[in-house]
Amino acid sequence: MKLQILFFAFTFIFLNTKAQNTPLYVGTFTNEASKGIYQLQFNTETGELGNLELAINIDNPSFLAYSPDKNHLYSAHKDGFVSSYKVNKNGKLSLLTRVSSHGKGACHVAVNKSGDKAIVSNYGTGTATILPVNKNGSISEATQVFNKNSENKKSRAHSGAFLNNELYVAYLGKNAIYSYELSDNKDKYEETSKSIVETTGNPGPRHFTFTKDGKFIYIINELASTITSARKVKNGYKLIDNISTLDEKFKDENFCADIHLSHDERFLYGSNRGENAIAVFKRNKKTGTLKKIQNISVHGDWPRNFTIDPTGKFMLVANQKSNNISVFKIDSKTGKLSFLDSINAPSPVCLLF
Questions:
Q1: How far apart are CA 126 and CA 318, in angstroms?
Q2: Which of 25, 36, 89, 176 has the greatest number of beta carbons closer than 10 A?
Q3: What digits encode the pLDDT tens for the residues 273-306?
Q4: Half-sphere exposure of 148 toward its Cβ, with a 13 Å CA cutoff?
Q5: How is domain 60-346 classified at the architecture level of CATH?
């Protein structure tokens, strides 16, 4: 009887622990240590991260995105390609297609909610490209290429996102985020504005995030080390504020990278490369205004990307130059971070749950 009780207890603990694990995919810049896209297991109860395995051997998969059903995965490659994969039951990835991004320095890819279109941003050539996604997860050749370069200035497309029937692209070199609207026959996107918000100086918008209702947008500026907040109005967006991501005592060179809202949208987070910190902001959900409440070390060097786990209780940070992923606990009441642990990973530049 005692043996039976022990057996059932062991089985319950084993299955429960397994159920708490969720896969984390890691995009990398490939080199002698890194070979492609890696997979780890993350425990959503304890915050433990481990079991690093190569999911697929492929060159420079620097940014990753899922299909809506998570049966397929997509990666942007800085040599000017986008790849699609089937996600196998064991977590390994099988290559489906590899198509041109119609530019150099592909640095970001995003998929729309219906899963039939992808947008890839090419930093090197400054172009942004629409790619059709097929039902089997494969990608077809480009249907549209947006080129915002001028004779004397590269547009430096850095990220894109779909929102309902609209498309938004951040052009770091143009210091602008352009919006595009799906045409009536749904076959192409048409430009609707030169810039959704007016900018001064050379802020360098890199990544951005929307609230779930689409009423607010937050833009992290790589060169100015600021976050621009704006509110949706009838004819576009109205600027709310620009706020620094840096600690007041930090005076050295810094380049912002990634930005994310907490699951409840009460807090906003941005990464600083140089200060090597995450900036934490408390957000007023009614007005959209931000108040900085914390700058915390990432326990690594060059936090290019970070993500929040599916439960909203943990943050994981990819530190490119120090070859590690740091794990933080998120205080649900205050939004502040506390460091838990770090695990070695080769040249991590993108994290995807």
A1: 25
A2: 25
A3: 999 999 999 999 999 999 999 999 999 999 999 9
A4: 27
A5: 7 Propeller (2.130)
